[in-house]
Amino acid sequence: MNESDIIARLRAHFPRIGDDAAVIGRQVITNDMLIEDVDFTLSIPLELIARKALAVNLSDLAAMGAKPQYVLIATGIPASVDAMQLTEAFIKAANEYDIEIIGGDLSGAEKLTISITAIGESDRPLLRSGAKPGDRIYVSRPIGASAAGLYLLQHGWTLTDGPPTVGYATKEFALSAIRRHVDPEPEVALGMKLSAIAEVTACIDISDGLSTDLHHLCEASQCGAEIERERIPTFPDLLGSGNALGIRPQDVVLHGGEELALLFTSSLRESELSARAGRPVYAIGRVTKGRDVLLNGEKLEARGFDHFRGGGAAP
Amino acid sequence: MNESDIIARLRAHFPRIGDDAAVIGRQVITNDMLIEDVDFTLSIPLELIARKALAVNLSDLAAMGAKPQYVLIATGIPASVDAMQLTEAFIKAANEYDIEIIGGDLSGAEKLTISITAIGESDRPLLRSGAKPGDRIYVSRPIGASAAGLYLLQHGWTLTDGPPTVGYATKEFALSAIRRHVDPEPEVALGMKLSAIAEVTACIDISDGLSTDLHHLCEASQCGAEIERERIPTFPDLLGSGNALGIRPQDVVLHGGEELALLFTSSLRESELSARAGRPVYAIGRVTKGRDVLLNGEKLEARGFDHFRGGGAAP
Q1: Across the interface, which of B10, B84, B105 has its CB nearest the CB of A9?
Q2: Please, what's the b/e burial string for A64-100 (b: 16 or more CB within 10 A of its CB; e: otherwise)?
């Protein structure tokens, strides 16, 4: 039993299920739940927890190419958390992301629980299912930092500091990675641009890890993929400082979750797509006719995050 | 600090907040979260937990007079709960309520957590804010059973049995009340009918208790209310059997939550409104110009459920 069995069962009854968000006409709707000690700990300030809870939902809308408009926020709040402070954090984050809070629910709980529903719209929602053999496979930005940051937080680092023995450059890298983990940026502007480029054929956000999300995209599009390790853009200094800190760069790049980078496909070449998107995007391989997902010619297993098997992405 | 302070703070920034559901054009959207050991226990079968989680959301749509269409279901599932069995329970409940599951989220959790977003539509969404002085105040059906059922479950009763010393009629009452608590029926059909009757001016569902929800309606409508205890329809045999079982009938009727009955206002008389609704509805008093909420001439305190103060509705 794992997550994909459950999604397959739901899809058999409700075919609209299975993308990053549901499409109803021009409207795109998603929801995600974050739970204390599963998805975050209270060592992170409420302001960042609120921002990230919004960000993971906006990232699902970004993957559909939608413009975010509204959110509903349901919270289960333990006695140790100041409910008004959390409310202020959500108001601030919503204003920063320029979205309107239109409703929600408040409840007591043992663990801080945040369930957000985000609603946006798009003239052409991007789906996971449109990739065609021959399309190039793209990643929107360098990846690997989120899982590296999580590893560091679990190994003695805080948001602002680490072991005194670590050198300046390594510390810079570590704090950047931690920041990327606790305050990831959804690719909202890029998603909207990609939605307007007819040659972009499929899109998903990297939330479970590149390997797992590439499998998701290929399954939905009934295709395979060949990607090259050397072409995957990697977070700056991950190879150098990462190794020194005990992180396995290859693993966090291939399998690290919560990146919120976009993974997408297009018939356009890298230079043309970057020009039309108005920023660099990174071609990492090609869509193939078969069903295999290959990395440098070898089978790439989906070793990212499964919400019931837990873990994966172990750096 | 309580729930209404937080809602007031949110409303100051986001004026659409504050009704049972948010209105975007013809669309009506709500979400509610249920958490194990706060809102239910795992002594209740998953099938009923799933039905109730849907029901409380559909009740919010019913209060807006909307026809339910879609739901997104986010679940945090502990190891002790069979995720596939819960999935089957949601599929069954959605089919019974004739709504489409369009998305959701799956996560591990220590306590079973269910957050549902429900979407419906209405040509004329009913708000809490439309009540006018002189309008009659209505309750849609006899109330008091849900809190009575909760009390019994907390005092040795199960879904199917209680102490052997209890007589036949009392046992019938007790099991009916328990059933009403674990499997409450949202007033979807009535809500849609009321939405089509122009003389229905305001509506809310009784989820926090009659006293609290009447205060909510009066605050939103900037009016007061005078209701009469003798006119409030009471669940059959609550007065007789309830007392014998240790329940305080007056308290569960006035302050018991999770009834999912509708509380609404209209200029129409009881006989005419019942005829046009196609079923009995119960006038319990009048909307007034002042801001007091009175029961038989005395101030009626809002003693129903506050999600941070907890309790209320203590039977």
Answers
A1: B84
A2: bbbbbbbbbbbbbbeeebebeebbbbbbebbeebebb
